[in-house]
Amino acid sequence: MAHFGASVLPTAELDLICMAKAKPPIRTEIMSGWKDIAAYLGKGVRTVQRYERDAGLPVRRSVGNAGSVIATQAELDAWVDARPLRQTFKLSRTLPETYFANFAAFKKTIEEHRQLRREMTSLRDELHRSVELLRESRRFVKGEGDDEDTKIRRYEEGARGQLS
Prior knowledge:
Elements: E1 2-4, E2 7-9, H1 11-21, E3 30-32, H2 34-41, H3 45-55, E4 60-61, E5 69-72, H4 73-82, H5 85-88, H6 97-142, H7 148-163
Antiparallel strand pairs: 1-2, 3-5, 4-5
Helix pairs in contact: 2-3, 6-7
């Protein structure tokens, strides 16, 4: 038995009275670091950092370590409940008019790139043929390698390839 004021109450009753007057516990689990916060919100680290920068995600920075952050689950839950993301970032469901113009310009640039690549490949092949012809001419002049008929035939084939 415990004494409560002038009356005497059993201990079990006193515990019930105290529990009834107590406030419900607040979730204050503290998360430290961007990875923990991102995992809790189900987002990527860079997305959560952008939320902090642009939408006021409630995080606290450590004094000693500039990159270190902490947040409580209760604050994050309250932030999520209070800030609908579509309104925060002014997102619309339609594409802006400039999207299609930019996309067409992008496609045109890609096609020009492909054409330049084809031309570069052709020029590179022509350069390789010219270098090989130059080597054959050098060997022919020095008298190295194959017999005279083979040298003349290769030289003439190379010269024909250059003209076409």
